[in-house]
C-alpha cells in the first residue's frame, strides 16, 4: 500500500451509507510525527499513558485518521472537534460542544486499523489479526453459544482459529454497535446461521432488543478477521451529504 | 495459600501479552490492561480465567470496570469478605 505523507489510510468498504477506512499501522516515524500534531492535549496525555510504543502508535495513527475523516464528513475544523464517551465508554464526537450526526467506531489489531463512519445510525467495527490465540479453548467456551461452539469444535485445528476469529469479530462489532462493548456477555447470543454457513452478510437482532435489526457483514481478509455491524432500520441521509469522507491528499494545514 | 495479588500476578504473567514486557517482569498495578496493549480477546479470556481461579462469577459488565490489577485485586478481596 503506497501512502504518501499524511495519508496512511484509504477507503476499504462502502456498505449502504456506511464507510469503512483501512488504517496502515506499520511503524513510520514520519506518519507518527504528523499524526501527533493533530491530537488535542487530552489525546496526547492518553497516548503518553500507553506503556509500549506499539500501543501508542496504533492509538495515535487511528485517532489522527479519525479526526481527518470526521472533520471532512462534518465540514468542521480539527480544533472544533472533541470526543466524549457514553455510559459504557463508547466514544462519541462533538463539534463546538454539539453532538454530531455521524456515528463512528474504531478498532485496531497489529498493523491494521479500521474506522467505520455512519450518519445517524449506530455502528460497530472490529478487527483481529489472524494470529494464534494462546487461550483459544477458553475463548471458545467464554464467548460462543452452543451451536457456534459445536461448529468450531468440529473443524480442523487451522480452520478452527479462522472460524473462531470470524465469529469473535462479528460479536465484537455487534457489542460495540450496541454500545456496551466489553460489558456485554456475547455468549448470550449467536451469529445468524446464514453467516455461519458461509454468507458474508446477515441480519441480526439482540434478544433484549427484538424490534431493532442490525446489518452485519464479514469484511475480513486472509491477514485479518474483521466485521461491521450497523443499525438497519433508520432512514439516513446519504453520506455524501456530509462532504467527501475520503480526501485524496491531505495535510494538517488544510483544516487548522 | 497465595495472596490475591500473587494469584493475579501469576494469571497476568501466564495469559496476557503485554507489549514490551517479558514474562516474569513486574506489571504496574495502576495501569489499565487496555493501555498496556492487551487485545480484547485476551481480556475476555483473562476474565474467564480469573473467575475459574477464584471460583466466582463476575458479570461481564462488572469486569469491564476492573481493568487495572489494583482495581481487580480490591474487588476480589472485597468479594472474599
Describe the structure.
The complex is a heterodimer of chains A (256) and B (81). Chain A folds into 2 domains: 9-120, 4'-phosphopantetheinyl transferase domain (Ribosomal Protein L22, Chain A, Alpha-Beta Complex), CATH 3.90.470.20; 126-231, 4'-phosphopantetheinyl transferase domain (Ribosomal Protein L22, Chain A). In chain A, the strands form 3 sheets. Chain A has a 4-stranded antiparallel β-sheet with strand order 1-2-7-6, covered by helices on one side. Chain A has a 4-stranded antiparallel β-sheet with strand order 8-11-10-9, covered by helices on one side. Chain A has a 3-stranded antiparallel β-sheet with strand order 3-4-5, covered by helices on one side. Chain A is globular and about 50 Å long. Chain A is built from 7 helices and 11 strands. Chain A has helices spanning 29-37, 41-49, 53-74, 136-143, 146-153, 157-178, 193-196, and strands at 9-15, 18-24, 81-85, 91-95, 98-99, 102-109, 112-119, 123-129, 201-204, 214-218, 224-231. The longest helix of chain A has 22 residues, at 53-74. In chain A, strand 4 (91-95) and strand 5 form a beta hairpin. Chain B has helices spanning 4-15, 40-54, 60-63, 69-80. Chain B has 4 helices and no strands. Chain B is mainly α. The mean pLDDT of chain B is 86. Classes of the chains: A alpha+beta (256), B mainly alpha (81). Chain A binds chain B through residues 49-55, 88-89, 109, 126, 128, 133-135, 138-139, 141-143, 168, 172, 180-185, and chain B through 15, 17-21, 28, 31, 35-37, 39-45, 47-49, 59-61, 63-64.
Amino acid at each position: 500500500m503506497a501512502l504518501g505523507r499524511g495519508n496512511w489510510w484509504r477507503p476499504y468498504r462502502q456498505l449502504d451509507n456506511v464507510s469503512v477506512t483501512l488504517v496502515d499501522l506499520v511503524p513510520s516515524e514520519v506518519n507518527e510525527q504528523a499524526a501527533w500534531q493533530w491530537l488535542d492535549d487530552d489525546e496526547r496525555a492518553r497516548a503518553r499513558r500507553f506503556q509500549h510504543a506499539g500501543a501508542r502508535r496504533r492509538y495515535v495513527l487511528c485517532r489522527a485518521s479519525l479526526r481527518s475523516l470526521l472533520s471532512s464528513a462534518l465540514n468542521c475544523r480539527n480544533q472544533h472537534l472533541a470526543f466524549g464517551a457514553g455510559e459504557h465508554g463508547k466514544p462519541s464526537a462533538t463539534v463546538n460542544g454539539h453532538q454530531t450526526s455521524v456515528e463512528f467506531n474504531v478498532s485496531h489489531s497489529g498493523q491494521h486499523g479500521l474506522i467505520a463512519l455512519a450518519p445517524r445510525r449506530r455502528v460497530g467495527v472490529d478487527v483481529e489479526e489472524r494470529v494464534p490465540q494462546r487461550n483459544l479453548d477458553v475463548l471458545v467456551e467464554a464467548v460462543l453459544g452452543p451451536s457456534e461452539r459445536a461448529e468450531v469444535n468440529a473443524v480442523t485445528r487451522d480452520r478452527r482459529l479462522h472460524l473462531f476469529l470470524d465469529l469473535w469479530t462479528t460479536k465484537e462489532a455487534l457489542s460495540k454497535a450496541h454500545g456496551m462493548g466489553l460489558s456485554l456477555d456475547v455468549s448470550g447470543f449467536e451469529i445468524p446461521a446464514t453467516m455461519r454457513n458461509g454468507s458474508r452478510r446477515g441480519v441480526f437482532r439482540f434478544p433484549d432488543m427484538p424490534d431493532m435489526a442490525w446489518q452485519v457483514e464479514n469484511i475480513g481478509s486472509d491477514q485479518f478477521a474483521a466485521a461491521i455491524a450497523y443499525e438497519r432500520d433508520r432512514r439516513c441521509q446519504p453520506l455524501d451529504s456530509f462532504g467527501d469522507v475520503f480526501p485524496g491528499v491531505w495535510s494538517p494545514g488544510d483544516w487548522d | 495459600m497465595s495472596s490475591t495479588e500473587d494469584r493475579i500476578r501469576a494469571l497476568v504473567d501466564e495469559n496476557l501479552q503485554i507489549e514490551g514486557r517479558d514474562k516474569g517482569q513486574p506489571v504496574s498495578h495502576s495501569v489499565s490492561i487496555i493501555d498496556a496493549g492487551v487485545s480484547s480477546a485476551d481480556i475476555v479470556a483473562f476474565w474467564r480465567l480469573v473467575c475459574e481461579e477464584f471460583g466466582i462469577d463476575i458479570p461481564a459488565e462488572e469486569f469491564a470496570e476492573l481493568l487495572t490489577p489494583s482495581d481487580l485485586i480490591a474487588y476480589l478481596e472485597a468479594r472474599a469478605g
